[in-house]
Amino acid sequence: RAKAQGKNAYQLFTPQMNEAVTRRLNLEAGLRRALDRGEFLVHYQPRLSFVNMRTVGMEALVRWRREPGMLVPPMEFIPLAEETGLIVPLGEFVLETACARTAAINAAMGLSLKVSVNLSARQFSDTNLPELVDRVLGATGLPPACLEVEVTETVLMQNIATAANMLAQLAEMGVSASIDDFGTGYSSLYYLKKMPLAAIKIDRSFIRDIPRDPSDLAITTTIISMCRGLDLAVVAEGVETQEQFNFLLGLRCDECQGYLVSRPLPAPDFEAFLRQSGNAPG
Ligand code: C2E
Ligand code: MG
Ligand code: MG
Ligand code: MG
């Protein structure tokens, strides 16, 4: 087609653009096949309570094993999955896998861990979501109180009315919700107050340089005290050092998640972590 438009049309596609287009098409084709081929897996990262120093839950994080020994991180395929609509079946897979695994772990270990599942914009605005959640909880036997969904501020604020409605429906079922990457988007504090939310996760960019960076320190301290007033739990994301941990403990942050406690782990390793850390009988 470019040819038919004349000589100059060739200028529209540089070799680099061609490469980028080819790469994207390959990625998209691979992504479409990946579900059928069972190439997606879910890793779990513990959430630790500062109150009793025990694991109270975990975040489900998807990975794509594109080839043996090659794990593609979500940031490299979630945006494309979102764009193409593949996020819907992929999201279903993650929800089902996470709920089934959590139900099994809780039953085997006598725990009541809460699993949190990330939802993208398209998933969160899907009017079938409550029905899906209900069906998955029923099929896996996971109590609704053991499921939490995570959405970013941006997703929440995109359409406040539908978001509030969705959260209300989930809350009605007993499923809680938290705001992910808090502080990086645009939140209206007014709506924050009105939304049925259980927790806020402070983005790891604010945690990284505490306690040294005075502005990060001010932001983190402010978020924690604001949430205390709003009766929202606060989770610190990306806690990597003992110094950050001690500092957040001092600020009476509720929970922490990060490499200091554990990296996201494949399910069997997560179960081993629970035993080793004294959360479950060895
Ligand atoms: P997120 O929901 O904010 O997840 C936290 C990310 O921070 C994870 O990256 C996790 O591995 C990483 N992380 C945790 N602790 C630390 C730490 O101490 N230091 C550092 N540097 N990083 C830490 P991951 O697994 O690569 O996921 C990236 C993002 O992809 C997630 O950010 C989430 O937005 C998205 N995502 C992951 N799984 C899903 C999914 O199933 N569905 C959807 N829609 N999005 C997902
Ligand atoms: Mg998250
Ligand atoms: Mg986050
Ligand atoms: Mg994120």
- Indicate the structural class: alpha/beta
Mean pLDDT over the residues = 92
| Total beta-strand segments | 10
Number of helices: 12
Largest sheet: 8 strands, mixed, barrel
- Low-confidence parts, pLDDT < 50 over ≥5 residues? none
Helicity range = 40-55%
CA-based gyration radius:
21 Å
Distance between the termini: 66 Å
**Percent range for β-strand residues:** 15-25%
| Helix/strand order | HEEEHHEHHEHHEHEHHEHEEH
Shape field: globular
Q: Biggest sheet: strands side by side, in what order? A: 1-2-4-5-6-7-8-9
Indicate the multimeric state: single chain
Small ligands present: ligand C2E, magnesium ion
What does this structure look like?
The chain has an 8-stranded mixed β-barrel with strand order 1-2-4-5-6-7-8-9, surrounded by 5 helices. It has 12 helices and 10 strands. The radius of gyration is 21 Å and the shape is globular. Strand 6, helix 8 (189-194) and strand 7 form a beta-alpha-beta unit. The protein is of the alpha/beta class and 282 residues long. The model has no long low-confidence stretch (mean pLDDT 92).
Task: List the topology elements.
Layout: H1 15-36, E1 40-49, E2 55-67, E3 70-72, H2 78-84, H3 87-109, E4 114-118, H4 121-124, H5 129-140, E5 147-152, H6 153-158, H7 160-173, E6 176-182, H8 189-194, E7 199-202, H9 204-207, H10 214-230, E8 233-236, H11 242-250, E9 255-256, E10 265-266, H12 267-276
Parallel strand pairs: 2-4, 4-5, 5-6, 6-7, 7-8, 8-9
Antiparallel strand pairs: 1-2, 1-9, 1-10, 2-3
Helix pairs in contact: 3-5, 5-7
Task: Write out key terms for the chains shown.
282 residues; alpha/beta; eight-stranded mixed barrel; binds ligand C2E; binds magnesium ion; EAL domain-containing protein
